[in-house]
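pasting for ref
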Amino acid sequence: MSLLRMLCKRHVLVLWSSQLLSAIGDQFYSVALVWMAIEFVGSAAGILISAGSLTTLLCSLLGGILADRWNRRWTLVGTDIIRALAVGLLPLLLLYAGKSGQVSFWVLMGVTITVEAAGSLFDPALQASIPFFAGDLKALSATNALMNATQRLARLLGPGLTGFILLVIPLPHLFTLDAFTFGISACALFLLGSRFVAKPAAKAESAVVRWNLGSDLVQMFGLLKQHRRLMWALLSLGLSNIAWSAVFMVGGPLLVSTVLKGDAGAYGLLVSVYGVGSILSLFAVGGSNRHYTLHAMYIGQVILSLGFLLLSFAPMLTIAMCGALIAAFGSPMADLILLKMIQTEFPLEHIGKVYSVRMQISIAGLALGQLLSVPLFHLLALRDAMALCSCLILLIGITGVSLHKLSSAPK
């Protein structure tokens, strides 16, 4: 089903527009958070970013379990309200902290941990609810593509809007705007309540269900063990994320600044081109009626690696942008294919848990790539190190394609 036809459905349009607005608000929040942290503690602001990533990593698995246990509608509305209150009160808390940079920094730290922990519960609950919004399998791919596009569009629109808005309002009130978008999201999700399953299916089996974290974990890993194709796909995604993070998040800005002799604006162009390419790919894959399998995901990784190889050896910015554009076309395939597998090949009452494992592996790969890039770029020349990471993605993609063909071959 086409993406435009999906947007013509009122409930999908309400959900998509509210989440896009909330994602743009998150961009306002991210800019204000990092900038104020730098003002308060300088280079130690990296601790704040690391704390947010660590919170997501630690809480995502528990968030997935709770998303399957609790009423998903109230989970989504409640976490939005918690985030709205935490972010909305931040300007007042900073005002109360006065001129003490250390106190203000710890206020930011507390809000960051609260927002990331709530988000770790919100995301699995939302992904587990999308099949009910889509209505049928034909519409599921298009709905997933639309929801995935909210984050990518927000990364394109948010930074530009932030600069414009700061001409009108002070920096702390970017938090106020983000709180307002969380409020809109909570209202939209509340009004769409009839589209949610009131309780996960596991709740209906027994009048009294005792929550046991250990049994939930055993059950979740048992499901993944039975679904080996998905387990290996998730592990390959984690390995690819290690290389992706090193190449694009760390190597990209270093290449532009030290080798291509560009400025922040040149790096912004590179990121924007990657964002445009990923959105075009997302709409092409998500809007197609074809059923994509893991074979397509691994081909996407091959495309990603070839784009990164071109980026690694680009002699000028325009060639680097071409490499980023090619790489971006292979990037969204894994997200959409894995998400649809989780939503359609697991029981409804376990979608949140399995999705949270996917979150953990992805985040762990990104964080590990950022850490390993430091010694890697120290030991090797920048272009060689980026090319090595690109080849790792290429090897994963080729191996995945080969194994998928062998497993699909008639015996």
